[in-house]
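for the writeup, i need someone to sanity check this before i put it in the appendix. the sequnce is what the collaborator sent (i think, or maybe the updated version? ugh). structure was predicted straight from it, no edits. if anything looks off just tell me and ill rerun, i have time this weekend
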Amino acid sequence: MAKAKKGKSGGSSKPTEMLLVSSKVRQLIKDAGCNTAGDALDGLNNYVGWLVQQAAKRAGENGRKTVRAHDFIVG
């Protein structure tokens, strides 16, 4: 018997939880000589969630259930 899928159906463009390690991202930004705005991590988190959804969609369109590195490459 197949496993039941968890979460919302249809997929939302915004993840409901943080996908990033905030301290690591903040340190990368600091190392680049910049400051991190309060909404920067939320924006990046939403973008990463969108990238994952697009990669999963591409894998599915190619008849695969496994997302590979090249599914994230655009262009």
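Residues 1-10 have pLDDT under 50 and may be disordered. Helices lie at 22-31, 40-61.
thx in advance!!
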